[in-house]
Amino acid sequence: MHPKSLLIATIALLMAGPGPAFAAGGHGHGQAHAHDTAAIGRPAAVSAARRTIRVEMHDNHFTPDTLRVKAGETIRFVVTNKGDFLHEFSLGTAAMHAEHQKTMAVMMEHGMLTPTGIDAERMKMDHSAMPGMDHGVGHDHANGVLVEPGKTADFAWTFDKTVDLEFACNVPGHYEAGMVGTVVIGR
Ligand SMILES: [Cu+2]
User: Fold this and answer.
1) Which residues contact 13 (CB under 8 A, 6 or more apart)?
2) Of 12, 113, 119, 159, which is least packed with CB atoms within 10 Å of its CB?
3) Low-confidence ranges of the chain (pLDDT < 70)
């Protein structure tokens, strides 16, 4: 598998956990994804972006720590990990990040993620029995990337509306340590 597609597939898996609106009831495979992230926009093809924003990951902060976009704008994010540890760049509200952190903690417990990398073999396992992990790899709705030390990854996102949006790393402990920034959505 191409390294980049692993990253995209990985983050798609990470984001597949049920959002707050779905936590109470079972939801069929594939139906909840759009709702989980629709409030903050939608994924886009990298080729559709007219502007690129570059972000560096460090242990444990982002540079820059504020990003400015416009509602309706499609941005290609190019994210480089300059640190010694695995980091994530994920777009979401504070509530979405809080939910996502639970999933990331489970992935770390199961060894799919380590402090410094992604275990590709464990990522291929059947995760259906793990809480918050009821969807498989390969969904094409990434709102972020996981980047190993020394690597660079990219993805594109279309910002639909003005919401209180953050970009964050939800690897256990990193958000609390300061790996969070603000996305200012203008008109
Ligand atoms: Cu991090």
Assistant:
1) 123, 127, 133, 135, 136, 137, 139
2) 119
3) 1-36, 126-141
What is the residue type of 53? I
Where do the domains of the chain lie?
A: 3-186
- The confidence score (pLDDT) of residue 96 equals 93
Q: Residue 88: which residues within 8 A CB-CB, separation 6 or more?
A: 11, 14, 104, 144, 145, 146, 147, 168, 169, 170, 171, 174
The pLDDT value given to residue 122: 87
* Separation of alpha carbons 64 and 175, rounded Å: 15
Residue burial 64-77, b: 16+ Cβ < 10 Å; e: rest: eeebebeeebbbbb
**Ligand 1 centroid distance, CA of 161 (Å):** 27
Residue 179 alpha carbon to ligand 1 centre in Å: 6
Phi, psi angles (nearest 5°) of residue 35: -70, -35
pLDDT tens, 73-127? 999 999 999 999 999 999 999 999 999 999 999 999 999 999 999 998 888 776 6
| CA of 25 relative to ligand 1 center, distance in Å | 31
pLDDT given at position 132: 54
pLDDT at 73: 96
Ligand 1 centroid from CA 15, angstroms: 16
